[in-house]
Amino acid sequence: MAVIADRCPDIEVHVVDLNSERIAAWNDPDLARLPIYEPGLDTIVARARGRNLNFSTDVDRCIEKADMVFLSVNTPTKQRGIGAGKASDLRWIEACARQVARNAKGHTIVVEKSTLPVRTAETIKTILNSTQERGKSFSVLSNPEFLAEGTAIKDLEYPDRVLIGGEEEHAIEELKSIYERWVEPAKILETNLWSSELSKLTANALLAQRVSSINSIAALCESTGANVREVAEAVGRDHRIGEKFLKSGPGFGGSCFQKDILNLVYLCRSFGLEEVATYWEQVIDLNTWQQRRISRLITEKLFNTLAGKKIAILGFAFKANTNDTRESPAIRIAKDLIEEGAILSIHDPKVKIDQIRAELGEKLKNDLGEWEFAGSIKDACNNADACILITEWKEYSTINWMEISESMRKPAWLFDTRCIVDSNLARKSGLNVWILGEG
Ligand code: UDX
Question: Is 272 buried (19+), middle (13-18) or exposed (0-12) by CB count in 10 A?
Fold first, then answer.
């Protein structure tokens, strides 16, 4: 919405939320305190906020005044009931649709921005059209978001494509006219509603599948003496395959990949497509296995016991350039190591201690391991038996291993799950080095 406001100064954009603390943070004069860390976002917010970009909790009034409403609430995986652990929880989408139905005036275009199971637009339409008030009408469009965290602004400013699903030409044209301010028309694709919803799930499933595929090959490389980066480069040069999304790592995280595949699997099962469901499920199984095998391997290298050993965790975000920790591989790896009795010292340049607490629980001492927050890389590694690099933050690629190694307890290990350190320098410093996809 910030990008839309920035590109279209004549369009008034109101971002509304029930959470007043969140809205207050978006209105904070100190841009460093915006709720989301995303490179470039602060500059855009600074430019548009107060001009045509507004943040408020006045949901009803903003709906009433709006010509177009984007539904952008989250749709996490259901935790209980039918479809628990697989289907999307649509309670917030439904609540939004009802609130829009109640408060809208005249004709309103409702745009699904949240990633939704296929045919959700039907539900939204039914709710919207159940209001009997005269003079109220709605068009529903699907306009899935393809931005990736860390590169979101660039992804929106120079998108590969913009997808608009819908049936009513006038509504499609209205939404198109917004994007056309900065996106060339050939990049704006029109499909039917269901194709649009399914395209988003499919794109994420295919991207995640590539990550699981290369991670499976990484394990084989470690066993055979091949090097996964060399293999990835060799296969990626084939333009039919392409070089993107072939970086092996600790497994994919983030709010989308796992949730969307689970959703796809649930959808396939509900249509009786068992083989298709099982096929996609494997992408997640392999990802979980990848995370688990890393913690197992670390335990083995440290003489099969982690009790009382200090281990530095470098990086807690699910990828670099974001402070998002949702489904981060660091969570499962950290939990496994704590379970083995390790004392983790966790560093991340952008993730705050509260977020780590929310994922790992209180840092109380118990008979198992524990975790602490480290303010610097040095503090995290001081006296540690091992250092595990989990997020590919740039500052981790230039660590002075000579200095760090001196402060670690010997024999000391470095486990690089992102292949970003200079392994020769790290080895020269006296560390035992294990690199994912190389061994
Ligand atoms: C993803 C999609 O890319 C985006 O189009 C969609 O709108 C939302 O979901 P995001 O989750 O923000 O975006 O990040 P992405 O860059 O796709 O990375 C997802 C995970 O895969 C991260 O944990 C990342 O580290 C991992 N990954 C990605 C790899 O391990 N190797 C790769 O080569 C690429």
Answer: exposed
